[in-house]
Write a structure and sequence with these properties.
Length: about 575
């Protein structure tokens, strides 16, 4: 059986001394709840005087006393919320800071494996859940726990028989709901959060693909994984709601049936005559018992909130527990930029087979090489391993004779520029986007990089040139234009090794010509690795490596591979057929 986890123990590592302030807030909230009970005693005194018809002139004094105590209770509760909010904001800030600092140390491959939507949701929503719990749920829980204690004293003080009778429906209600709580509900909360993360991840991908979906007149269900995530959540939610309906209805019916118990008690105790004392007590219990119902409802829901926050903290800790790239203790620096892959094997987490198996190849400094082959052959994985997006499972990769695991990450990143097929620009100015490669670059350096990347036609049409904000006031760039801005970053960085991962895949013909000219300029005196499906773009490479099922099946120049009549030759012939195909031909 799973042991119940205390959220505060999980949050202790993030409190940094604010636990005492949070405790003070909970104590103040509990005291405010007990103070809030005192005016009900004053109400009982007023009812007693009214029924007896004596000392009626003292009723205003009693009433104002009750108002003063209630105001004091409210003020104390506000102070309690101030304490818990300050603690909650600190915890959330610490959580987000630690998350972001840790995320920066993680291998870049984590963002593909986990999904950017999932990580974003943990950073935003899971930390927000802890803030809500500490700032609101904890003081409310203290109130919900203290209120029944105060009410129990009041209910038993005046007529213990009626008081006990009033509690019977509450006890029955909690017996009904007890079966809902526990490990099964905790698992349900975890499943719910997993489902929401899946929808978030697939939703991000769907939004990115909306232009394609609209072009072909498809619906949301054309994205099968997004549709499956929605259907999965819908099915689970319907099933869970159906299972919870009966116990929840019984619980709500029972705790709201106090009046039924009171009426039954009134008939029983008043069957031999109704005394003023019985009328007084019945009127009083009719007034205060709804408070017990409200308090018990809050207490029940606080259990669900605890499960939610426990799951949220576990998701935060899951990211914090991810192993960062081991930082090299040495200051090894490559003497040149030869790249050697020695018997490398790599398997993605939870994968059934290797993505790469015993792969070995060498790329001399200054060489322009290409990785080609069918999808899933290991081209992108090999390039990402060279850039150390993640570490190899077996074998080693060296640059200039130095294992990349012995090169500090910051130094390795200085050696490599990566241009992806899916370019990303931030909602900042063109200059700021280019400066990501070199934050201290001057406007003149940025402008020079843009010129080399064939971006001047883009800059000339923008209202504020390189200081134009992307995404503001309708300023947007096409995919090919964004690609060229990305290439400008590579020019500004001026790294000796360039990795081009399908960098022209989505460019239109005009943009592709500009991109190719930019690549020719960028590749001068650099070691270049190009991943391509368009085989016409790799014909002039110094060496073409054909990767299939995680191994290199062929290597050589275009002419050598065509002469060999092997895998590359058949791929090239098929490629030529595809580009020459015409409607009606």
């Amino acid at each position: 059986m799973k042991v119940k986890v205390n959220p505060l123990k999980l949050l202790a590592t993030y409190m940094d001394g604010y636990d005492n302030l949070i405790l003070l807030g909970r104590i103040l909230a509990a005291v405010s709840a007990l103070l809030a009970m005192v005016p009900y005693y004053e109400i009982w005194k007023i009812l007693r005087l009214a029924i007896a018809g004596e000392n009626l002139d003292t009723i205003p004094t009693i009433g104002w006393t009750a108002v003063g105590i209630m105001l004091g209770s409210m003020l104390m509760y506000v102070m309690a919320l101030m304490c818990t909010h300050i603690g909650a904001f600190h915890i959330q800030a610490v959580m987000r800071t630690r998350l972001m600092e840790h995320i920066l140390t993680l291998p870049l491959g984590v963002f593909d494996e986990e999904g950017s939507g999932k990580i974003r949701r943990v950073v935003n929503d899971s930390t927000a859940a802890t803030e809500t719990y500490v700032a609101h749920i904890l003081p409310d829980k203290a109130v919900a726990a203290a209120t029944p204690i105060g009410l129990a004293v009041l209910m038993l003080a005046f007529d213990w028989k009626i008081g006990l009778l009033s509690m019977v429906p509450i006890i029955i209600g909690f017996c009904f709901i007890a079966g809902m709580m526990g490990p099964k509900m905790q698992e349900s909360m975890k499943y719910y959060q997993n489902a929401m993360e899946a929808i978030s991840n697939e939703g991000v991908e769907y939004v990115r693909g909306i232009p394609v979906v609209k072009t072909f007149g498809q619906t949301v269900h054309s994205f099968k994984r997004f549709g499956a995530a929605i259907d999965d959540f819908t099915g689970w939610a319907t099933n869970y709601t159906t299972k919870m309906t009966a116990p929840m209805v019984r619980f709500m019916t029972a705790i709201n049936a106090v009046f039924v118990a009171l009426i039954a008690g009134a008939y029983f105790w008043g069957r031999n005559g109704v005394s003023p004392e019985l009328v007084l007590n019945m009127m009083y219990y009719i007034i205060i018992t709804p408070l017990l119902t409200v308090a018990m409802t809050k207490l029940a829901y606080s259990g669900e909130q605890e499960m939610t926050v426990v799951d949220a903290i576990e998701r935060v800790n899951h990211i914090l527990d991810m192993e960062p790239l081991a930082d090299a203790g040495t200051k090894a620096m490559p003497t040149n930029h030869d790249i050697a892959i020695h018997q490398v094997t790599y398997r993605y987490p939870n994968a059934k087979k290797n993505a790469l198996s015993n792969l070995s190849l060498e790329i001399p400094e200054g060489a322009h090489v290409a990785f080609v082959g069918p999808s899933g052959g290991g081209k992108s994985t090999t390039a990402q391993l060279i850039a150390r997006f993640f570490d190899v499972t077996e074998g080693s990769i060296t640059i200039g004779g130095v294992d990349i695991r012995d090169i500090r990450e910051s130094e390795l990143m200085e050696q490599i520029s990566f241009v992806f097929q899916d370019s990303r620009l931030l909602k900042r100015s063109i200059a700021d986007n280019v400066r990501l490669a070199k934050p201290d670059a001057s406007d003149e350096e940025v402008m020079e990089a843009l010129k080399k990347a064939q971006c001047m036609d883009i800059i000339e049409k923008l209202p504020e040139g390189i200081h134009t904000q992307i995404g503001a006031k309708g300023t947007y760039l096409s995919g090919g234009e964004q690609q060229r801005i990305t290439i400008a970053r590579a020019f500004l960085k001026n790294a000796p090794i360039i990795i081009l991962d399908e960098a022209t895949a989505f460019a239109d013909p005009d943009n592709e010509a500009s991109v190719q000219r930019a690549f020719e300029e960028l590749a001068k005196d650099k070691t270049v690795i190009m991943i391509a499906h368009r085989l016409s773009t790799v014909e002039n490479s110094d060496c073409i490596y054909v990767l299939e099922q995680g191994t290199c099946v062929e290597a050589g120049t275009h002419e050598e591979l065509m002469t060999a009549q092997g895998r590359y030759c058949s791929m090239y012939e098929e490629y030529q057929k595809s580009v020459q195909w015409k409607v009606g031909a």
